[in-house]
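Researcher: Please predict.
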Amino acid sequence: MTQLAIHLGRSRTTVSNWANSDEIPSARGFNEMLDKICEILKCTPADLIESSPDKKD
C-alpha cells in the first residue's frame, strides 16, 4: 500500500481508506490516479471497479 501511495502522491491513510471503501473516491484527478494504478498493475479500470446492482426499495 505504501508504494501505491507514493506513486499516486497520496498519503498511505488516504489510499487505505479508498481500498476499504465501497464508494469511488470523489477526489479531483481520480481518473488520472486510476490510470496510474492500472499502469502499475498492468490492468484495466474494469478489472479494479466492481459494480453491484442497485438495491430495490
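Model: The radius of gyration is 12 Å.
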